[in-house]
Amino acid sequence: MDFAFDARTEELRTRLLTFMDEHVYPAEQIAEEQRARLASPWDTPRIVEDLKAEARRQGLWNLFLPDAAYGAGLTNLQYAPLAEITGRSPHLAPTALNCAAPDTGNMEVLSQFGSEDQRKQWLEPLLAGEIRSAFAMTEPEVASSDATNIETRIERDGDSYVVDGRKWYISGAMNPDCAVFIVMGKTDPDGEDIRRQQSMILVPRDTPGLEVRRAMQVYGYEDHSHGGHAEVVFDGVRVPAANLIGEEGGGFAIAQARLGPGRIHHCMRLIGMAERAIELMCRRAVARTAFGKPLAQQGVVQNWIADARVTVEQLRLLVLKTAWLMDTVGNRGAHTEIQSIKIATPRAVVGILDQAVQLYGAGGVSQDFPLAELWASARTLRLADGPDEVHQRSLARREIKKYL
Ligand SMILES: Cc1cc2nc3c(=O)[nH]c(=O)nc-3n(C[C@H](O)[C@H](O)[C@H](O)COP(=O)(O)OP(=O)(O)OC[C@H]3O[C@@H](n4cnc5c(N)ncnc54)[C@H](O)[C@@H]3O)c2cc1C
């Protein structure tokens, strides 16, 4: 078993690490300052556009897309260590490289299932980083972790479909650059096969009847850098029938295909967040003294740091194994491992960030250090893209089935 990265990955890692040092970390403070001066906090700070231009110039662009016709053509195993590096600055680096959710998943859907016209109209500007997009599935009125509950209606009417429903926590939708929504809803609510009732449809933001109503908060944060998480109402929204993605009833299958890569990308970035937390813990521990000695000399602090290191090494190995399986046997073959990392990574990284917060004292919960916001962001990943319990249920059932 060879644990080394291949030559292309190493070369890209070196370039990306330099890009982070020279451009991304210095931009973190500037982005905040620029955002504070914008007419709306949802607008994109100038420095983000500068970072995008620089990343593109350096060839650090669309690294997530395995299809070489559209992106960098990297395998999941090659992309994993790069996504991890971007996770160290999760509010800037993924966007700078055009590798941010939910655009990544939406680009994958369009590249795999979109018609030629849909790819031209939406995929091309997304690949160029000219527009952003959102994915609208979750609804406040129903338990949306069970996608069969979705109530939004997509009804055929002549040459159009009419969309009616209410969604929330739609990431990215507060950003005015978010030009298009991929909406999941029911085209055949009474269909016998509950997995064939749903479809996905493209809804341009400026379609009459679409209202981005308000920004939902995440533990009090509005998550400006990710374009927020909006409540969105679709009231008699009429779009051409050609906006349907794939076939009627294909929504469930597309959602499954979309979520595999999305989940592993989150886990890769979470490991980067944990690495940042360990770095911050060590820096603080050597710099701060209490009761006559640096915090770094307290056994309990050493235990936190050691345990965090052990946890990160374990998680990384599992994520890399999952990436390798996705490359070699496909997303279906890697089902158990994808669920394992989706269960294990957010939970463990939340724990590491919590300990980093503790080490920083009041500073840890403050706005002066990134830890509190990183914690809130990691915590949401125990819910987003499927709550822990749903993955545990399905993984356990597969394990148990072997003995029935
Ligand atoms: C920050 C953030 C961003 C998000 N971005 C998006 C987005 O861009 N687009 C989008 O469509 N959605 C998005 N979501 C929504 C997210 O995907 C849902 O919150 C998630 O799927 C859970 O659905 P729900 O909130 O309706 O919870 P529910 O389905 O009501 O579930 C509530 C709880 O019930 C328990 N539960 C559910 N099923 C089971 C089970 N089988 N066994 C045991 N316990 C169970 C779990 O503990 C679960 O957390 C986002 C959420 C957050 C917090």
Description of the structure:
With 404 residues, this protein is an alpha+beta fold. The protein has 3 domains: 7-114, Acyl-CoA dehydrogenase/oxidase, N-terminal domain (Butyryl-Coa Dehydrogenase, subunit A, domain 1, Orthogonal Bundle); 132-245, Butyryl-CoA Dehydrogenase, subunit A, domain 2; 252-401, Butyryl-CoA Dehydrogenase, subunit A, domain 3 (Up-down Bundle). It has 11 helices and 10 strands. The strands form 3 sheets. A 4-stranded mixed beta sheet has the order 1-4-5-8, with helices on one face. Strands 2-3-7-6 form a 4-stranded antiparallel beta sheet, with no helix packed on it. It has a two-stranded antiparallel ribbon with strand order 9-10. The radius of gyration is 21 Å and the shape is globular. The relative contact order is 0.10. The model has no long low-confidence stretch (mean pLDDT 96). The structure holds flavin-adenine dinucleotide. Residues 102, 135-138, 143-145, 169-171, 218, 229, 380, 383-387, 389-390, 393 line the site of flavin-adenine dinucleotide. Flavin-adenine dinucleotide (FAD) is lined by residues 102, 135-138, 143-145, 169-171, 218, 229, 380, 383-387, 389-390, 393.
